[in-house]
Amino acid sequence: AQRVTQPEKLLSVFKGAPVELKCNYSYSGSPELFWYVQYSRQRLQLLLRHISRESIKGFTADLNKGETSFHLKKPFAQEEDSAMYYCALTDFGNEKLTFGTGTRLTIIP
Amino acid sequence: DAEITQSPRHKITETGRQVTLACHQTWNHNNMFWYRQDLGHGLRLIHYSYGVQDTNKGEVSDGYSVSRSNTEDLPLTLESAASSQTSVYFCASSEGTESYEQYFGPGTRLTVT
């Protein structure tokens, strides 16, 4: 069975400091990985996906198949980055998403 | 503008009552999903549909049912509400063309007393 693990429930980072939100997965097939974000009073929305290799709002994520990780990184945190972040995976051809438990990121001014 | 809506946004009900949560999307998406969001569990898939007349069980489907009679709607029914079903429920949809991006509704906060 596929599983997504986000070991940090809460993460506080000072403004301007680097951010790394950890995500590990277990899956026997070839997964597609995503990061979703939920800002206060907003809907859950896609932040980025592995296959597009885009940098969104300064965030990047690299898929490490050896370590089965897809950590989300940003070099300089901004106050507007405070939100709930979910890592998720699906396999190609299967539209279902499996979510991690989420990490609440707080940026300290 | 196309969107996905949920109603009601808040609901309080009593144990044992039947409750239906509505989800409506105007994107003409093939795929629709229901999740529940609980502290410490993240989002867990309840039921999903890949098209009209298609429904499938997700990870936590016990006590829930869905039906898909048209493209736009996927109502979620709690047959006999239990306190363990107190949660925030999210509906989502996706194109079904291997784009994989899911678009989420605003959520329904359900309290079972």
Task: Summarize the structure in short.
The complex is a heterodimer of chains A (109) and B (113). Chain A is an all-beta fold. Chain A is built from no helices and eleven strands.
How would you sum up this structure, described in words?
The complex is a heterodimer of chains A (109) and B (113). Chain A has strands spanning 3-5, 10-14, 19-21, 24-26, 31-38, 45-49, 60-61, 72-74, 83-91, 98-99, 103-108. Chain A contains no helices and eleven strands. Chain A has 109 residues and is mostly beta strands. Chain A is globular and about 40 Å long. With 113 residues, chain B is mainly beta. Helix content of chain B is 0%, strand content 51%. Chain B has no helices and eleven strands. In chain B, a hairpin with a 2-residue loop joins strand 5 (42-51) and strand 6. Chain B starts with a strand and ends with a strand. The model of chain B has no long low-confidence stretch (mean pLDDT 94).
Portion of residues within helices of chain A:
under 10%
Roughly what fraction of the amino acids of chain B lie in strands?
A: over 45%
Tell the overall outline of chain B.
Answer: globular
Computed Rg of chain A: 13 Å
The fraction of residues in strands of chain A falls at 35-45%
